[in-house]
Amino acid sequence: MTKSLRTASTSPAQRITAAIIEKLEQGTKPWVKPWRGVPLSRPLRYCGTPYRGMNTFWLWMVADACAYASPFWMTYRQCQKLGGQVRKGEKSTIAIFYKSYKKEIETADGGQDTENQRVLKAYAVFNADQCDGLPEFYYPNPLVAALEPEGREERLDAFFGQVGANLRHHGAQAYYEPLRDRVTMPPVELFGAFDHYYATLAHELSHWTGHSSRLDRDLKNRFGSEAYAAEELIAELSSAILGAELGLPVSHLDHHASYIASWLKILKSDERAILTAAAKAEEAATLLLELGGLQTCEGETDVDLASAA
């Protein structure tokens, strides 16, 4: 999965609404907390008061996208007031202040009447996970101790380590960020088995090969576009090739029906699409195999990792 951020010259409320609609179109319910291992909570202000209305769903969704575990959100000054500091380079998100009230007005005939008034403002907030030095209270502890799954293999650790990608383990989603040229993976403890971890990493590294400094594929497209679907298909095929070379499963990769539908649409509309996707997938897999220390020659690896364990 590639990850991008939407920018638009619309009001904060319109941007939030559009983002929630986009998530629903992807088959994701923004109000279902997706991560595991930390206590379930509504988004909370720095004082512990829950956010209400649209802010609840919006901040849930932002926390999901950015893999924040803490439910606490605060302004820059509130963070400082608590003795903390927002880390350099962290980006704020918006929260909405909404209030309705009645106002006395003078009518055309000189009488008095009441009119409904509304105030809608946006302000910048940061999640506690973006801040250092806050009291321990703001960082939730795991509900259960994390256990490393079975199946770790030194040969695969060595292979992926040699690729040289900027890799971090954080949150509960796997994705590649083209702008930061960074792959994010959930901690291995969230996987049922190490082979599933390796297979997921192979998929995200396949996206990583498309960066402008490597194979230079188009990674700037949004979910739902034909180009986005094509890139996902390339990563899917590339990870399948890697799976065959490395002895990894690929059947566990859970793609929503919308992915399948978008791939079918591409393949039905362009008979050469599968040829293009397969060629680009081969390029991606070949690059990763070379970076990982498996030199290729005429499409064949010098070492069969699947049988070298």
Please supply descriptive tags for the structure shown above.
309 residues; 8 helices; 2 domains; disordered C terminus; alpha+beta; four-stranded mixed β-sheet; three-stranded mixed β-sheet
Judged by helices, strands and strand pairing, the structural class is alpha+beta
Number of domains: 2
Output mean pLDDT. Answer: 80
Could you describe the largest sheet, including whether it forms a barrel?
A: 4 strands, mixed
Q: N- to C-terminal separation? A: 29 Å
**What fraction, in percent, of the residue positions are helical?**
25-40%
Shape descriptor reads: globular
- Secondary-structure element order, as H and E? HEHEHEEEEHEEEHHHHEE
Radius of gyration in whole Å, from Cα? Answer: 24 Å
**Count of DSSP-assigned helices:** 8
What is the spatial order of strands in the main beta sheet? 1-2-5-4
Spans of at least 5 consecutive residues with low confidence: 33-37, 296-309
* Total number of beta strands: 11
Beta-strand fraction estimate: 15-25%
What assembly state would you assign to the polypeptide chains in this entry?
single chain
Structure explained in plain terms:
This protein has a 4-stranded mixed sheet. The chain is globular. The chain has 309 residues and is an alpha+beta fold. The protein folds into 2 domains: 12-138, no CATH class; 154-307, no CATH class. Helix 1 packs across helix 2, helix 5 packs across helix 6 and helix 6 packs across helix 8. Strand 4 (93-106) and strand 5 form a beta hairpin. The protein has helices at 12-25, 54-66, 76-81, 154-163, 194-208, 226-246, 257-269, 273-291; strands at residues 44-45, 72-74, 85-86, 93-106, 112-127, 131-132, 167-169, 175-177, 182-185, 296-297, 300-301.
